[in-house]
Amino acid sequence: MKTCFCFALLMLAPLMGWAGDVPAGSAGSPVLVELFTSEGCSSCPPADAMLTKLDGEQPIAGAQLIVLGEHVDYWDHDGWKDAYSSHAFTERQEDYARRFRLSEPFTPQMVVDGAAQMNGSNGALVARAVEDARGRAKVPVRISSVTAENAKTLRVHVEVEAMPADFKARKAEIFVAVALNRAESHVSGGENKGRDIRHVAVAESIEKVGTVEKGKSFDREVAVKVKSTGDLGNLRVIAFVQEADAGAVVGASMSGAGQ
């Protein structure tokens, strides 16, 4: 039985004033922030709001926050099925649970650069994890183009520089995620019955597209599937490099589709 954390919501206030000497929105070290959430979980909407703040305001100096909302499927009961949920995201969260030696997955959970996890509404812990992540060395990642091959497929050109010799891992995996920029639901059942919930960066898919090794770069056009047809302008594409077995994220980049 997975867990929903329903204690005090520490939410947005701890992230206020983190702009420091760098204006909010300035480019910085890319940091991937994943939120495991569900519309069926009553304590998830504040974490969804936090993710929106991180995405839109970029409130932490020196960090380019690349956010991704991954809706798990184990809350699809009690009269409400999250339309954005996927068992693939549940499995990804379970991989993290094993890595972090948690007794079980929970919502809302944020994972920062694959290196730290916390309750997704705890702004102080999120900010601290981002602070740590922005100082770590990263592999440069670039999405040089995103084009629609057809209504269900995007062609994404991904470039990843070779991993430096001083990196601990010999190689890492390259993933491409396709996500909705914006989405919203009126929840008519379950713990959030009657609520209107808004989301950002709602993951539709996360696909492994290759590997990068020490001394070798990756430069390839890959095909990724699209679930939401019709409005490519409401999609974003994220490429990230992650050590095996749900390890640390060592590079990331984002691009909008349909630009």
Short description:
This protein is α+β, with helices and mostly antiparallel strands. It has one domain (9-15, 25-256): Immunoglobulin-like, CATH 2.60.40.10. It has three helices and 13 strands; from the N terminus they run ββαβαβββαβββββββ.
3D structure, described in words:
By secondary structure, the chain is of the alpha+beta class. The protein is built from three helices and 13 strands. The chain has one domain (9-15, 25-256): Immunoglobulin-like (Sandwich), CATH 2.60.40. The protein has helices at 44-57, 87-99, 123-134, and strands at residues 3-4, 29-37, 63-71, 106-107, 109-112, 116-119, 141-150, 153-160, 171-186, 196-213, 218-225, 235-242, 249-256. The strands form four sheets. Strands 3-2-5-6 form a four-stranded mixed sheet, with helices on both faces. The chain has a four-stranded antiparallel sheet with strand order 10-9-12-13, covered by helices on one side. Residues 5-26 have low confidence and may be disordered.
